[in-house]
Amino acid sequence: MALPSGTFNQSYAQDMAIFRTKTQWAMLLAFLAFLFTFPLYSSDRILTIITIMGIAIISVHGLSILTGYCNQVSLGHVGFMAVGGYTSAILTANLGWPFWAALPCAALMAGVVGIIFGLPSLKVKGFYLIVSTVAAYFIIIWLVLQLVDLTGGADGMAVPRPAIGSFVIKSKASYFYLVMILACLATFVAKNIVRTRVGRAFIAIRDNEKAAEVMGINLWTYKLLAFFIGCVFAGVAGALTVHYVAFACVDQFPFMNSVWYLGMLIVGGMGSTTGVLFGVVSLKLLDELVTIVGPMLAVAVSPQAASSLGLILRGLVIVVFLIFEPRGLAHRWEMVKAYYRLWPYSH
Amino acid sequence: MNFFLQLVISGFALGMVYALVTMGFVLIFKCSKAFNIAQGHFVMIGGYLGFTFLVTFHLPIWAALLAAIAVAIVMGMTIERLALRPLVGQPILAVIMMTIALATILEGLATLIWGGEYKAYHGVLPTITIQFGELSVPPEMTIGLLVSIATVIILVLLFRYTKSGLAMRATAEDEQVVQSAGIKVTTVYALSWVIAAVVGVIAGILLGGISGVMIPMSEVGLKALAVALFGGMDSIGGAILAGIILGVAENVAAGYLDPLLPAGGGLANVLPFIVIIIVLVFRPHGLFGLADIERI
Questions:
Q1: pLDDT per residue as tens digits for the range A85-134
Q2: Residue B137 bridge partners (DSSP)
Q3: How confident is residue B266, by pLDDT bands cut at 50, 70 and 90?
């Protein structure tokens, strides 16, 4: 990491620090303070948008570790979210477990299912792996629909509001706090996983699988571990999705969402924790733009134009990023930071 | 027994259409090692084009097919030139995301132009009844069966006996050698996209004539994926055989097992994916594909 002029690392602790300077700490605290006082001065609608962004951030962090760092592309991420969501729903609604106990079980369950569907990754890669994850999604959703007694099938099932002790998380603001705490935690964990021995092994596998194997990285262990970690994040996000609306049904987990999660990674930048935040926020903001502009377009031009606007815009954004900035917004952000650090002597 | 044979026959007719869709997919993969997720969307666009030409413009079937093919040629060339060519040499994920983004844009365009509604044109396609004793090919499927067989034969002849077919086969073998022999690889890429779009659109008109057309019709592209993997990604013969096997298996499984399952089954939709997982674990190169031998 490039440091501001005049700052030098003098110990390993300083070298490893994510937040190195006082300015960075001040900015972090200011941001957290802003985030956690946010419900005090914003409308319900904006809270909803940010809560959904938070859930997506948790999920995309998992995908980022799996795809961005370990290069195991998954188009079935939403399927693993569904596993987490339904596990939590069944545990809380049918068995009466408390939310705080069901959430880790949902995460574990999603992770285990992820390992099962990650097994082909040992034999196949690239496109073949992508297809096997697509297959994973459709098989999971089909199973959910078939297990009518457990999941309510296509009708869905009601899920109790999460409660911690006697405090029921019911209002938008309290759910916002729950999601934000978990999203900050997920960002922190994701950032640190990729800095550990495990994360470096993932990066080695991404850059050159054979070389990694020769270096002594056990592909079997680490690829499955990548699937496990990625799907644990997905499981948490799935559980949060289900409890947010107090209802679980397969329509909450559409296939195209996995595609948009990959799109968020591409827009944000592969292999970067900040990129996840950029990608999720920018694509979700694009969605909001569409919901605002759409009705105007329906009046001004035609209702068809309005309903096609979202699809065409999102497709175009991904096309533009793939052609003109494959390294994503995170790379642009680094360039901006470098510019300000070096200004006015840019060389 | 009759029930079984009837299922096999209609499965065969369906399988030929799958084979047609898959051929476009396999062709692009053979030539440019790109995976076209949007293949199913070509089919959907084809279905809507069929509606426009057959119902709105009242064209006869042959004119409608020709008009749709003309549109498909323009579509294939535009897509290759604007979207895929800048990505030559990029990682595989970039190409796949590009075709997914294209798929979304095509879906958006279909919504924009045709409103994304269900359009049916039953009975517009000519019906021919073929009878084997007590068994019969469903009349609305016969034309699909005939046109798919004809298209497949034309494509095979094209590969075998024409110069551009030779260029495509050579490109599949080794790009660098082809370039040094003076063949423009970009033209071959463009041609493969054009053919893929054309066969997709033809399949779309045929499927549209059987069950009508709507946006979710593009899911047939996912089945084409299964067929391609099963037959071997780079084998055209494999695509045809696997298409027929999967079409028959899907029909038979749906006919016998669906009544046994809770929630009405829906096995036909998930069977391709179960096949994919099994094939990937036990025989990743499919029935006739080239086994990938990795050396360090």
A1: 999 999 998 888 888 899 999 999 999 999 998 888 877 777 778 888 88
A2: B130
A3: low
State the sign of the Cα–Cα–Cα–Cα dihedral A34, A40, A42, A48. positive
Domain locations along chain B: 8-218
Q: What is the pTM of this model?
A: 0.86
Q: Which of A79-93, A190-204, B199-213 has the lowest mean pLDDT?
A: B199-213
Residues in chain A: 347
Count Cβ atoms within 10 A of the Cβ of residue A23 and give its class: 0-12 exposed, 13-18 middle, 19 or more buried: exposed
Contact A316 B105 (CB under 8 A): yes
Q: How far is A316 from chain B (nearest CA, A)?
A: 7
**Domain range annotation of chain A:** 47-342
Torsional class of B190: left (φ above 0), alpha (ψ -120 to 50), beta (otherwise):
alpha
Residue-wise pLDDT tens digits, B138-152: 776 777 778 888 888
Contacts of A204 (CB under 8 A, 6+ apart): A211, A212, A215, A217
Instruction: Report chain A's C-alpha Rg in angstroms.
Output: 21
Give the whole-angstrom CA distance, residue A55 versus residue A237. Answer: 5
Residues B222, A134 contacting (CB under 8 angstroms): yes
Phi, psi (deg, nearest 5) at residue B213? -130, 135
Backbone angles phi, psi at B119, to 5 degrees: -120, 130
Token pair listed for A251: 């329509």
Look at residue A9 and give its three-state secondary structure. Answer: coil
Contact across the interface for B101 and A323, Cβ inside 8 Å: no
Q: Do B102 and A315 touch (CB under 8 A)?
A: yes
Q: What is the C-alpha separation between A262 and B253, in angstroms, rounded?
A: 34
Question: A312 near B95, Cβ under 8 Å?
Answer: no
Return residues 159-218 of A near B (CB < 8 Å).
210, 214
First to last CA, chain A: 17
Burial A97-133 (b: 16+ CB within 10 A, else e): bebeebbebbbbbbbbbbeebbbbbeebbbbbbbbbb
Q: Which of B97, B103, B110 is nearest residue A266 as measured by Cβ atoms?
A: B97
Confirm if B241 and B175 have CB atoms less than 8 A apart.
no
Cα–Cα distance list, A156 to A103, A235, A249, A250 (Å): 19, 18, 4, 7
Correct CATH for A47-342 of 1.10.3470, 3.90.1070, 1.10.155, 1.10.10: 1.10.3470
